[in-house]
Automatic annotation (TrEMBL):
This is histidine kinase. The keyword Kinase applies. It comes from Novosphingobium humi. Residues 120-173, 248-292 form the PAS domain. Pfam families: HATPase_c, PAS, PAS_4. It catalyses: ATP + protein L-histidine = ADP + protein N-phospho-L-histidine.
Length: 616
């Protein structure tokens, strides 16, 4: 009953291979329904049995279990089926082999369907691969190539193994990829179902062809996006290509005619390939006169030679200052006249060729305007100096007051010693007169510097030691018994670096700052002069322990005619700032935390040359 109802093809044989029992499915599979087969020999039922099957039966009756996943079973009428089978021995209760059990599964329908599918696939592949001028390929949802037909290989030049797994961005040039064209197409096709356009496509060898391309989305039975299919048709023909070339030439001609700067295109040898309308106007040549000629005809000989060397070096090494840099050159017109130009060179590749585009801008007007501006600035500077003569004349009284007062003191001291007729006063009188003479010379130097400043606005720079200059200024200000109780100290390193200054003018600054400090500290005050390096500048500081500067006047301290002194003119600090700024430095003040005021100013240090280091 089990074999009668089991839904599988099962047959049971004895040791003589006579059928003992079988399932209905086995009878149906082998077209034996309605026949009396029980008790009949396998070989009588299937007379077409070959020696291979007889050997299988013998081996199974000897105790082996045998099977086959797929085998063709030939029928007596010449037809055949594909079956999967397994044959196993069955045992008697006493332990011996009583026969075999044969299990089979008919797979003819499945195999035929697979064969038909494979045949259809082969035919489809042959059809796709033999389509001329069409590339058909599949993409995964991310845009990577998953199938690449032979037509795609012929059209694009890439073999299947070179494209599988690669993003189809590879089929677009750099400009399209930079603009995000491939990603945009995928997005449009995924959203709208398909995307079609006509554009230039890139081959493996770098050439282009005009293509009509359609990108379609592919979904499974559940509506899930599983990829894209793209069909690319080469529509390049001679007429279409000529129309595109004509359009490009028209566009290029319009650009060349309207671009404001002169544009010249040359090849790798320097021969002129294109010449814009602005270039014709700038150089006086017509296009036929320059095409094919070396670009050196547009430059003076020195610049032409240098440009040729730079172009050759760039072509050989890829390095140099030809591409990507702007520089000033001297151009040469057709009539031989010259003009300054700003030249910028760009590079482009046309297949295997390389061309260079030069943009040239006439600098004549700019440089003429710059020269006029410099002249105007110089004239304004001269007028400003002349306008300042009145102020500077007033300043003379301010700056000459100290040396003149010192001269007066020295001369009066001599006169007193002469009237008193003291013995041994001759030496002291000589020293006093010598000091008076030095003060007179300093006053003369101040006047001379003023005349030179008004005439040329230049500084008489010299190399000076800050410590020496500070000690001399202290000696000038502290001369006389009135300041005997004020301490003036110069605290600077022994190896302090020299500065590059106009000695007389900077000494004026120090004297003015020291005189202000003396008036601020009063009796028993203290003044310190220091020097600190700040990069390539030297900061010189005059620090006092006086009462400091009132906040209400601190903001206008350096303004002309601003003063707190009853007899002052308010020009000292204003003049000091002008002198320091003329040296490229700055002058400022700040409060000292312990009490007092610090005035700082900077002047340039002497930059040591290589020969000085060698001398060390």
């Amino acid at each position: 009953m089990f074999l009668e109802h089991v839904p599988a093809a099962v047959a049971m044989f004895d040791r003589d291979m006579c059928l003992i029992a079988c399932s209905r499915r086995w009878l149906a599979d082998y077209d034996l329904e309605g026949q009396s087969v029980i008790g009949r020999s396998y070989y009588a039922v299937f007379p077409q049995t070959d020696d291979q099957w007889r050997d299988i039966h013998r081996r199974a009756l000897a105790g082996e279990t045998l099977h086959c996943d797929l085998e063709r079973f030939k029928r007596g009428d010449g037809s055949s089926d594909w079956i999967q089978w397994e044959i196993v021995p069955w045992h008697l209760p006493e332990g011996g082999i009583g026969g075999v059990m044969l299990f089979t599964q008919k797979l003819t329908g499945i195999v035929e369907n697979d064969e038909r599918a494979r045949a259809v696939k082969r035919q489809l592949d042959l059809l796709i691969d033999n389509v001329q001028d069409y590339a058909i390929y599949m993409l995964d949802p991310e845009g990577r190539v998953s199938m690449w037909n032979d037509g795609a290989r012929r059209l694009f030049g890439w073999h299947e193994e070179e494209m599988l797994g690669r993003h189809y961005e590879r089929l677009f040039d750099a400009l399209d990829n930079a603009a995000g064209r491939p990603r945009m197409q995928l997005s449009r096709a995924a959203r709208e179902g398909s995307f079609r356009d006509r554009s230039l496509q890139l081959r493996k060898d770098g050439s282009h062809f005009l293509a009509d391309a359609t990108l379609c989305r592919i979904r499974d039975e559940h509506g899930v996006l599983i990829g894209f299919g793209r069909v690319v048709h080469d529509i390049t023909d001679e007429a279409e290509w000529r129309r595109m070339i004509a359009a490009n030439e028209t566009q290029m001609r319009l650009i060349l005619e309207t671009i404001p700067d002169a544009m010249v295109v040359i090849d790798e040898t320097g021969a002129i390939q294109s010449f814009s309308a602005a270039a014709e106007k700038l150089f006086g040549y017509t296009v036929p006169e320059v095409l094919g000629h070396d670009v050196g005809i547009l430059m003076v000989e020195a610049d032409a030679m240098r440009h040729g060397d730079d172009l050759a070096r760039y072509g050989a090494t890829g390095h140099g200052h030809v591409v990507g840099h702007s520089r000033r050159v001297i151009g040469r017109r057709k009539d031989g006249s010259t003009l300054p130009l700003e030249l910028a060179v760009g590079e482009a590749k046309l297949g295997t060729r390389r061309v260079f585009t030069g943009f040239m801008r006439d600098l004549t007007r700019r440089e003429r305007a710059d020269a006029q501006l410099r002249e105007l600035q110089n004239e304004l500077s001269r007028l400003a100096r002349i306008w300042a003569v009145g102020t500077m004349a007033t300043a003379l009284a301010h700056d000459l007051n100290q040396p003149l007062a010192a001269i007066t003191n020295y001369v009066q001291a001599c006169a007193q010693m002469a009237e008193q007729g003291e013995s041994g006063a001759a030496g002291a009188m000589g020293d006093a007169l010598a000091a008076a003479g030095q003060e007179a010379l300093r006053a003369g130097a101040i006047v001379q510097r003023l005349r030179e400043f008004i005439a040329r606005g230049e500084l008489a720079l010299s190399r000076e030691q800050p410590d020496v200059l500070a000690r001399q200024s202290c000696a000038l200000v502290m001369a006389g018994s009135a300041h005997a109780n004020i301490a003036c100290r110069v605290i600077m390193p022994d190896d302090v670096k020299p500065v590059l200054i106009d000695r007389v003018q900077i000494q004026q600054v120090l004297v003015n700052l020291l005189r202000n400090a003396v008036e601020a500290v009063g009796v028993h005050g203290s003044i310190t002069i220091t020097a600190t390096e700040q990069w390539d500048m030297m900061r010189i500081s005059v620090i006092d322990n006086g009462p400091g500067i009132a906040p209400d006047i601190a903001g206008a301290l350096f303004d002309p005619f601003s003063t707190t002194k009853s007899t002052g003119m308010g020009l000292g600090l204003s003049i000091c700032r002008a002198i320091v700024e003329a040296h490229g430095g700055i002058l400022w003040h700040e409060a000292v935390p312990e009490g007092g005021t610090a005035f700082h100013f900077t002047v340039p240090m002497v930059i040591r040359g290589p020969e000085e280091f060698n001398n060390d």
